[in-house]
Design goal:
The chain is 48% helix and 15% strand. It is an alpha/beta fold. Helix 4 packs across helix 11 and helix 5 runs parallel beside helix 11. 33% of the residues are buried.
Length: 302
């Protein structure tokens, strides 16, 4: 049971360390192993910090000084940041392994959507680092927020229970239908719900024929063949899951405020936030729903 923040950190560490022991040989680095803060401890710190919205290394180090009984010694800020980047593949693999522990393969339905990931404020985008240009960041319009952003779009496939199955990062102007064509074949024999941005009859036919994926997207008001009203209402109701997950990622995990100064730093932070989200959902199910309110109160204080 989780009674306080120390218990929360302990649960997180036990899960992460158990998985890390299985995958550690794949991520061996030259030189001696860390002696002051193990890799599983560092991953735990990164994940829990994102649960608490401690987004900058300065804030992270300051906050963890209060919990030296849990993590006696953290690397200094730049070294912590460098090690997290080096471990981002392992962090994402931990997320993928936790997904197998939840048996999400049994879910026959899912949702696809996207949300903006700004990397530079629009008013200073003209003075941006060439780093972002080299990795195709650009200016795109976010209809849900009714504003332009400079950066990327994070496309997510999730279950109707709000578990994120897979993600892909594209430029902010990336075509949602092209992403669906590349991403959804990995989920054969499922029905995937999408918004109006995924409407394209040839795409739906291609996915159905080649992968057995049924993509059902909301229709635009000017289309000649609208969906039945009952089906439209059903899709809109289930798509509330998208709003819930996007709200969690934005408000609780600050996914739109990564503070990254490089593309690979951005990727490391996104992997960490997504892994934190998945682990919290796993704890919710593992410990039972009544404990989720307590976990949320500890991990995401107001």
């Amino acid at each position: 049971m989780i009674h306080d923040f120390e218990d929360f950190v302990t649960w997180m560490f036990v899960i992460i360390d158990d998985i890390w022991q299985q995958i550690a040989p794949r991520y061996r680095r030259p030189g001696p192993a860390p002696t002051t803060c193990s890799d599983s401890e560092l991953i735990t710190v990164a994940v829990v910090s994102d649960c608490r919205s401690w987004t900058t290394e300065t804030q992270l180090v300051q906050e963890w000084q209060r919990y030296q009984s849990l993590i006696p010694r953290l690397p200094e800020r730049s070294r912590f940041n460098r090690r997290r980047r080096n471990l981002m593949g392992a962090i994402n693999q931990i997320r993928q392994i936790v997904l197998t522990m939840r048996d999400v393969a049994q879910d026959a339905h899912g949702v696809i959507d996207s949300l903006p990931i700004p990397v530079v404020s629009l008013h200073v985008a003209s003075r941006r680092s060439r780093e972002w240009d080299a990795h195709d960041a650009d200016v795109g319009y976010c209809a849900s927020k009714k504003q332009y952003v400079f950066g990327y779009r994070l496309h997510l496939v999730m279950t109707l229970g709000g578990v994120i199955l897979d993600v892909v990062l594209t430029p902010a102007t990336g075509d949602e239908r092209e992403v669906a064509a590349a991403l959804l074949p990995a989920f054969p024999d499922r029905t995937i719900l999408g918004d109006k941005g995924y409407v394209r009859a040839p795409l739906a036919e291609q996915l159905d024929t080649q992968s057995g994926v049924q993509l059902i997207a909301l229709r635009r008001t000017n289309q000649r063949t609208p969906l039945p009203r009952a089906l439209t209402d059903l899709i809109e109701r289930f798509r509330q899951i998208v709003e819930t997950v996007n709200s969690q990622l934005t408000e609780q995990f600050s996914i739109d405020e990564t503070g990254a100064h490089s593309f690979w730093g951005l990727c490391a932070r996104l992997y960490t936030k997504l892994t934190a989200h998945t682990l919290c959902l796993y704890l919710n199910r593992f410990l039972g729903n009544p404990n989720w309110l307590q976990i949320k109160a500890l991990a995401f204080p107001n």
